[in-house]
Amino acid sequence: MSERGLRIAGLRAGVDGNEILKGIDLNVEPGSVHALMGPNGSGKSTLAFAAAGHPNYQIQSGTVTLDGEDLTVLAPEKRARAGLFLSFQYPAAIPGVSVANFIRTARQAVHPDDLTPSKFRAAIYEQLDVLDMDPAFLSRYVNDGFSGGEKKRLEMLQLAMLKPKYAILDETDSGLDVDALRAVGNSVRSLREAEAGKDIGFLIITHYPRILQHITADRVHVMMDGRIVLSGGPELANRIEREGYDTIREEVAASAG
Fold it and tell me: What is the pTM of this model?
């Protein structure tokens, strides 16, 4: 039996024939939190989109498996059904579609017919309580007039209701103020402490280490120029906060020379 985990091996991918990822190896275990950090343009979001099956991102070689299942041969919606969740840096607004109907439709797509309407209602109210969210949120239109923090909290509610095996959070701290950032951190922590979310593996993609003040990472990886150049424990994020990426870049260049 294949080992469990979101396993990326030798991944090379790009856009319009331009190679961006140059051989990525990364394993996210069930229940663990990995942070992928790096300067802008290093390829972090490309990794997220390639794993999720975005049609503009072509995989040239390598593998992406989820608990042993090859994701690269699956359409994006089938990758979601297999247990992969991707939160977007800039979630789209959908005027006219309520949050409740949106999440109900998404749940049906990933887990067809597993909840009756009454059980769905009970489940979503339970998650609202876990995430400390106002039930009035459900009647609003998806991301229409939402603040940055509200958009991210909606994604946490989606994550809780879809119950993926692995979640990739792409720049989920982008544009958030201090209070919104703390709220998102609390949401992820609440999900991980709840029975339904304790086995979810997280890959948190970020440019700045500030979100890791609210979500403790088991492993931190640094990506530069399409490669993971350094991995370590949570102290690595603190080092980046103190020294920035230039020092790491210089060290990597010196060791390569």
Answer: 0.91
Identity of the residue numbered 77: E
pLDDT in tens, 20-77: 999 999 999 999 999 999 998 999 999 999 999 999 999 999 999 999 999 999 999 9
Q: Are 22 and 89 in contact (CB under 8 A)?
A: no
Q: Which of 104, 109, 161 is nearest to 131 (CA)?
A: 161
What's the distance, Cα to Cα, between the start and end of the chain in Å?
41
What is the rounded radius of gyration, in angstroms, for the C-alpha atoms of the chain? Answer: 18
CB 224 within 8 A of CB 213: no
Structure tokens at 42: 């290093």
Q: What is the spatial distance between Cα 186 and Cα 96, in angstroms, rounded to a whole number?
A: 29
- Find, among 146, 150, 148, 137, the residue nearest to 99 by Cα: 137
Rounded CA-CA distance 98/96 in Å is: 6
Amino acid letter at 9? Answer: A
d(CA 205, CA 28): 13
